[in-house]
Write a structure and sequence with these properties.
Elements (H helix, E strand, L loop, with lengths): L3 E5 L5 H13 L4 E5 L6 H14 L3 E7 L4 H8 L4 E6 L7 H8 L8 E2 L5 H13 L3 H27 L7
Helix pairs in contact: 1-5, 2-3, 5-6
Bound molecules: 5-O-phosphono-beta-D-ribofuranose (RP5).
5-O-phosphono-beta-D-ribofuranose binds next to strand 3.
């Protein structure tokens, strides 16, 4: 059963939002991904958000751009955590998306990641699930070690080229 719902306002958001899915796959987390526009199909959106808890979702990752109401409206209906991904828009470079998602009224939080930060949304969803799953927590700790090792490799390469981090 899918534990995470990934929803985006348009298929044009997919190239960014697929990064959240890739992270969930890496950690072996079942997810369901769909496109629903809160503005263009509000009835479909309402059914999605209202049935998400019964479907077994523990977290929703919602990405949208421009007047990005999708994550906030998910949070208004779904009682568990919602992570918002502001998609970089053409007109305002994603500042409109960011402000629309992050400036929620008191009582209805959306955990907002960076503009186009879908990978971090996936990691944050995994960390939320890991609060109650030791096996998943071990995978996240291993991932942190992977990150460190990749930086160490780059650092060694730079040093080989005579570039030093430290004086
Ligand atoms: C938002 O409008 C979507 O999330 C998307 O980021 C943006 C543009 O949508 P399209 O016009 O590409 O469908 O609702």
């Amino acid at each position: 059963m899918a534990k995470v719902g990934i929803v985006m306002g348009s298929d044009s958001d997919f190239p960014i939002m697929k990064k959240a899915a890739e992270i969930l796959e890496k950690f072996g987390i079942d997810y369901e991904m769909t496109v629903i526009s809160a503005h263009r199909m509000p009835d479909v959106f309402f059914d999605y958000a209202a049935s998400a808890k019964e479907k077994g979702f523990k977290v929703i990752i919602a990405g949208a751009g421009g007047a990005a109401h999708l994550p906030g409206m998910c949070a208004a209906i779904f009682p568990l955590p919602v992570i918002g991904v502001p998609i970089k828009s053409a007109a305002l470079s994603g500042m409109d998306s960011l402000y629309s998602i992050v400036q929620m009224p008191s009582g209805i939080p959306v955990a907002t990641v960076a503009i186009d930060g879908a990978a971090n949304a996936g990691i944050l969803a995994a960390k939320i699930l890991a609060t109650n799953d030791d096996e998943l927590l071990e995978k996240i700790e291993a991932y942190k070690e992977e990150l460190k090792a990749s930086v160490m490799v780059k650092k060694a390469k730079m040093e080989d080229m005579g570039i030093k981090y430290e004086k």
